[in-house]
Every structure is written in C-alpha cells, then in structure tokens.
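User: I'm putting together a teaching handout on how sequence relates to shape, and I'd like one worked example. Could you take YmaF family protein from Paenibacillus sabinae T27, show the sequence you're using, and then write out its predicted structure as tokens right after it?

Assistant: Happy to. First the sequence, then the structure tokens directly below it.
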Amino acid sequence: MNNIPVKGYFLNRRESCNEHSHDVYITSWDGRPVYHVHPFSGVTSYDDGHVHQYAGVTEPAPTGVPHVHRYFTMTSVNQGHNHVIQGVTGPAIDVPGGGHIHYFEGVTTVNGMRPHTHHYKGGTGKDS
C-alpha cells in the first residue's frame, strides 16, 4: 500500500439541524493542488439614493470537474450602513485562452434607515 500525502481542511456546517457535520475541502493530493477560487467585485443597483461597492473571493471548488462556488462578502458602507451579499455562482463557463469564469446575481440583505435591498450581478475573474 502506498501512502499519498493529502492536505485539506474541515469547516463546520452552519445549518439549523440537530446533526453535527463538516464540509471537507481537499486542497492538495500528492503535492498537486486540486481546488481553485475566483475573485469577484462590482457595484450594486442604485436604490434609496445610493449604490454600494463589493469585492471578495469565492469559496474553493474542485478543479477539472463541473462545479459552482459559494460566495459571501459585505458591501461598502454608504449612508451609514452596509449589506450582505451571498449566494452560489452559476456553472463554469470556459473562456478563450484557457480557464473559466462563473456568473452570479442576487439581492442583498435588507438594511438602512429606510430598510431596502440592492440587486447585484456580474461575472467572476478567471480561476486561480
């Protein structure tokens, strides 16, 4: 039997169930990376007299197989408040010259002196 070095990490699941579980992310197999992430950024829709900027990096996902990424970030603070942006990207879309991107879109959390949301959408940067 050969030993193959494997590196990775566990994350506690944040679900409202009574069972204790983890997500397992293997980050390298036999010294080779097996995951990737994408940067993303943009500007929200204009609502309640302002916009918010946002930027982040997706959660890791497997390389070389059909996949999506979860994402989470906070918007900039405008008019004394910010919003949460989170969701799941669409599937990978190959780009000329290699690599791929993902599209994403959604609605922020509700916040502000006059409670409101913003829409957002865009594409991630290439995988890294």
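A couple of points you could highlight for students: The mean pLDDT is 87. The first strand starts at residue 6 and ends at 12.
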